[in-house]
Design a protein that fits this description.
Elements (H helix, E strand, L loop, with lengths): L1 H65 L1 E2 L9 E2 L3 H7 L2 H32 L6 H7 L2 H4 L2 H11 L6 H8 L13 H28 L4 H9 L4 H12 L1 H16 L3 H6 L11 H11 L3 H26 L8
Antiparallel strand pairs: 1-2
Helix pairs in contact: 1-14, 2-14, 3-8, 3-11, 6-8, 8-11, 11-14, 13-14
């Protein structure tokens, strides 16, 4: 009986000792994690400070400016007006005109880039002689800086010596040279063509990377089940491209909404206001009219539109693919 009691007491003391040891170990682990985290923050402190100074401060200051009446034509006037600048923009017919043009440009450009990029990726996904070289060459349009791309298309659309006029005239499709950028509908189409040429190759490479990770067994099983080509594309290829499509849509939408370089080089917002997008209106307000209050508000409206579109893409497409890039 005495031995049993001693054994029970020994077990109880062992359990209490293990519990105390566990608490000590847990505290030591938390302390170690805290020290590691503190050391990591210490190492990253210079980078964090640099980011705050170079990125955070300009963003914060531009938000502050957007809440003030501030025009460099009257530099000493800096009056707080709250959201009045935003209200002025939203009630201005010019804003809604620029928004419609931006929407048309964005929708057409993104749809064409996605369709063309996917078609090129499907072609490049098949083995053929010189396949590696073609995959490398296809990136050249994307590697061209936007301003250089605009200058190249300016020469193509030139009403006197343009390559487009020469080609169409040589084929007998036109009888005299045309000023393509002086007609509103042609000017917008010209901007879209220049933008698509500059961007489709990046989309093609992203889609190609996703296509090369699709298991060939899926296509074999589909063919055995009697699936046609379009059924294989809809039920196998597209689901595996969902994550790549999400990346392309977000990237290309942001670029299309914020397009500026080719507008500056090709049309300068004209003829009239036919190609005046939100970013061009922001540029005119800020640097032509020197109205930094309304210009900053314009910039944040463009940012908000881009953010909303990105969230919509995420809600629709995120997690629908079979893998993540």
């Amino acid at each position: 009986m005495t031995r049993a009691v001693e054994t029970r007491e020994y077990r109880d003391s062992s359990r209490h000792g293990d519990a105390r040891l566990g608490r000590v170990t847990s505290r030591a682990r938390r302390l170690l994690d805290y020290r590691r985290a503190s050391f990591a923050y210490l190492l990253n402190a210079p980078s964090i400070v640099a980011i705050l100074l170079l990125v955070g401060y300009p963003i914060g200051y531009s938000v502050w400016v957007s809440l003030h009446r501030y025009n460099l034509q009257r530099p000493r006037v800096f009056n707080f007006v709250g959201l009045q600048n935003y209200w002025d923009i939203l009630t201005d017919p010019a804003f809604w005109s620029a928004l419609r043009i931006t929407a048309a440009f964005t929708v057409l450009a993104v749809v064409i880039v996605v369709a063309l990029g996917m078609a090129v990726a499907l072609l490049l996904n098949r083995p053929f002689p010189g396949c590696g070289l073609v995959r490398a060459v296809i990136l050249i349009p994307w590697a061209i800086p936007p301003v250089v791309n605009g200058l190249m298309w300016q020469w193509i659309y030139d009403p006197k010596i343009g390559a487009l006029n020469a080609l169409l005239h040589g084929l007998g499709l036109i009888t005299q040279y045309q000023g393509w950028l002086s007609v509103p509908i042609y000017a917008l189409g010209g901007l879209i063509s220049a933008h698509v040429w500059n961007e489709f190759s990046l989309a093609a490479i992203l889609f190609l990377g996703a296509l090369q990770r699709v298991p060939a067994e899926l296509y074999d099983a589909g063919r055995i089940d009697g699936c046609k080509t379009w059924q294989l594309f809809v039920h196998i290829t597209l689901p595996w491209l969902a994550q790549a499509l999400l990346i392309v849509l977000i990237l290309e939408t942001m670029l299309a909404v914020r397009v500026f370089d080719i507008i500056y080089v090709l049309t300068a917002g004209g003829p009239g206001t036919a190609t005046t997008t939100l970013t061009w209106a922001t540029y005119l307000t800020t640097f032509e009219n020197l109205d930094f209050g309304h210009g900053s508000a314009y910039a944040y409206i463009v940012t908000l539109i881009t953010l909303v579109l990105s969230v919509i893409y995420f809600r629709i497409l995120y997690g629908r693919g079979e893998f993540e890039i």
